[in-house]
Amino acid sequence: MGDSVNIRQLLELAAVHMGMTPDQLMQLVRSGQLSRMLSPEQQAQLTGLLHHPEKAEAFLSDPEVKNAVRKWQDGQ
């Protein structure tokens, strides 16, 4: 799985978890507003996933995460 796929999937999963669309989440990221919505621990976790593709791959390989992504993609 390429890095761009990992980032896209993480963005989609995070957006669903936060109750917004991936586009809305990306706007928050680009504007710098996302950091105000996350705790320092959440910021560190997200930074780790974004800067280390192997961590993102491991995260996306988790069966619970795969199931959540599948449900979101199916519109559930």
Describe the structure.
With about 80 residues, the chain is mostly helical. It has one domain (about 5-75). The chain contains six helices and no strands. Helix 1 (about 5-20) crosses helix 2, helix 1 packs across helix 5 (about 55-60) and helix 4 packs across helix 5 (about 55-60). The two termini are about 25 Å apart. About 5% of the residues are buried. The mean pLDDT is about 80.
Give the low-pLDDT segments.
Answer: none
In quaternary terms, these chains amount to single chain
- Structural domain count: 1
Q: So what's the overall shape?
A: globular
Query: What is the average of the pLDDT values?
Result: 78
Residues in helix, %: over 70%
Distance between the termini: 24 Å
Q: Would you report the number of β strands?
A: 0
Q: How much is the radius of gyration in Å?
A: 12 Å
For the biggest sheet, the summary is: none
